[in-house]
Amino acid sequence: MIKKSAAEMAAALSAGELTSVELTQAHLDQIAKVDGDVHAFLHVDNDGAIAQARAVDEKRKSGERVSPLAGVPLALKDVLVQKGIPTTCGSKMLEGWRPPYDSTVVTRLKENGIVILGKTNMDEFAMGSSTENSAYGPTHNPWDLSRIPGGSGGGSSAALAAFEAPLAIGTDTGGSIRQPAAVTGTVGVKPTYGGVSRYGLVAFSSSLDQAGPCARTVLDAAYLHEAIGGYDRMDSTSINEPVPAVVAAAKDGNIKGMKIGVIKELQGDGYQPGVLKLFNQSLEILASLGAEIVEVSCKYFDYALAAYYLIAPSECSSNLARFDAMRYGIRVGEGSAEEVMNATRQVGFGREVKRRIILGTYALSSGYYDAYYGSAQKVRTLISRDFDNAFGKADVLVSPTAPTTAFKIGEKANDPIAMYLNDIATIPTNLAGIGGMSVPSGLAEEDGLPAGFQIMAPAMKDDRMYKVGAALEAALLTKWGKPILDNAPALGAK
Amino acid sequence: MSNISRDDVANLAKLARIDLSDDELNHLSNELAVILDAVARVQEVAGEDVPPTSHPLPLKNVFRVDEVRPSLTPNEALSGAPAQEEQRFKVPQILGEEQ
C-alpha cells in the first residue's frame, strides 16, 4: 500500500478498504525500518499521527464529509511551525523549541484531515543544495545512500522516494523543492510567489521563499497544492485570488497546440550530458503529443545566480537577526546582552549560515549597498523582463531542473561556488516570483540516477505546468511500463 | 580579486553579533573574496536606466482591519524563552554600569 499514490490511498480510504490508522501505521513502520539509513526525519510524531488518523477515521465512519486527501499521511519540512512539535530548521539555534502556534500551511493540512507524520531534515535555515548543512547530520538519497538527496528540502524528497510518506511539504527559495525532486525521482512544485501563505514559515529570504507541494505524482502534488494554497490574511504578500485549477489541469493533461519555450541559456556548458539527453527526449515526447516547441532566449539569466547570492544573503542577514537568545531558542554564555548574543549566534549557527549572514551584512553596508544589493535588484528587473518576453512567445518555459544528478556526500562541501551552481536553472523563477515544477525525466545513462524536467509558468498560471507535467509523466509511464521509483534499490534489507 | 581583509570580516561579524573564531575569520576572508568576485558581475548590466525590483509583487501598504482577535496567552508567548520572570522575558543586562 505504501507504494501507491496519495490519490489511490485516498480512494481506498473512502471505499472503506482500509483505515487511516492502518495507513498511517504502515508508514510509521516504514520509517522505523528505513530511516536509520535515510535520515529523512528529524522528528517523528508517532502518537500524534495516530491520533490524527483516528480522528479522520471517526469522521468518515459517522458519515461526515471529508476532503479528498483526508487520512493520507504527509512529511513536513522542519521550517514550518506546528504547535507543540519540535521545530529546528536544521539548526542548533532552535534545538528543543516547541512553537506555540500553527503555520497556515499546517492549519490547512489539519483542516483537510491530512495526517502529519513528522518533521523532515533540511539544510540549516534552508540554506544549501544538499542537506549536508543540517546541524543534525545529512539525509541520504534512497537511490544511493552515499549521495545527497538535494537541498534544502532533501528530507522531504527522500521521505517520498523511500516510501516513508506519499506527500510532503517543501519550501523553495532558489530551488529547494525542485532540485531535491529532480535528484530523487519525485515531483516538486514551487507555486507562484504569494500562492501559498508564508505565515509560520521561518523566514530565510522573504521576497523569494515559497512553500509548496512534494509528491510522487503530478496529480498528488495538485491535490496538495489546492489543499494548502490560497489567500491568507496573516500573510500580507498572499495573493487574494482563487487558487489556479491545478487538479483539473493535472487530470486533463492535454497539451495539443500549447507552445513550449526552451530556454537557450539553461543548457549546454555545465550540464551533464545524460541529463541533457533526457531533457531532449522529453521535448520530443511533448512534441509528439501535439505541443509546439520553440526556442527562447533569456540573456540576463547568466546574471541570475550572482543576483541571487546577493539578494538572498542580504535578506537572510536581516531575517536571522531575530535569533538573539532573548525570546526563544538557545542561550549561551554570560555577561551583557551583547556578549550573550555574540556567543549564542557563534554556537547556534553553522558554517553556511554564518557565511551568508556575513556576506549579506557586507552587501547591505554603507558604501557597498548600491554596488552590490542595489545592482542585484536591477538584475532582478532584467530577469523579470526576460520572462515577460519569453512568455510572449510560449505558454510555458522548460529546462533541465538541475545541471547534474545527485553528487556524493562531501564532494562539494568545501567549494561554495560549485555548490551554488546546483541552483542555476531554478533561481530565475524565484527572482521573478513565478511558478516552477520538476517532474522526473528518467535515469541518466552515465550513472543510472534520476534527473528532472523543469516547467515554468507565468504568475498565477500554475495550472499550465500541471498540464504539461501530467502529459509528460503519463507518456513516460507508458514508455517505461512502471514508475521511475521502481528502479530504486530496496532499503532496510539488513 | 576583491580585497577583504581579516579586519573587515571581524568588523562585519561584530555588526552581525557573531563571535567568530580566529580560524573562521581567516577562512571567511578568503571565501568572501572569491564569492564577491563571482557576484560582482551584477554591476556589468545594472545600468542607470534599470529600475530596481525589491519584491515580485507590486504591493503597496497592505492594511488589515485593526480589531482584537484571539492570540497567544502570555504563558504561550513565553513558552520558548531561555529565561523568564514575572510573566516577562528575562534578559541579560543591556546597558553598562555607568550608563
Keywords, separated by commas or semicolons:
heterodimer; A: 494 residues; Amidase signature (AS) enzymes; 16 helices; globular; B: 99 residues; mainly alpha; two-stranded antiparallel ribbon; 3 helices; flat
Structure at a glance:
The complex is a heterodimer of chains A (about 500) and B (about 100). By secondary structure, chain A is α/β, with parallel strands linked by helices.
Question: How would you summarize the topology of this molecule?
Answer:
The complex is a heterodimer of chains A (494) and B (99).
Chain A: H1 6-14, H2 20-38, E1 41-44, H3 46-61, E2 73-77, H4 104-111, E3 115-120, H5 154-161, E4 167-171, H6 178-184, E5 187-190, E6 211-215, H7 218-228, H8 246-252, E7 259-263, H9 273-288, E8 292-296, H10 304-319, H11 337-348, H12 351-364, H13 370-391, E9 396-400, H14 416-420, H15 427-432, E10 435-443, E11 450-457, H16 462-480
Parallel strand pairs in A: 2-3, 2-4, 7-8, 7-9
Antiparallel strand pairs in A: 1-3, 4-6, 5-6, 5-10, 9-11, 10-11
Helix pairs in contact in A: 2-3, 7-8, 8-16, 10-12, 10-13
Chain B: H1 6-15, H2 22-39, H3 74-77, E1 84-85, E2 88-89
Antiparallel strand pairs in B: 1-2
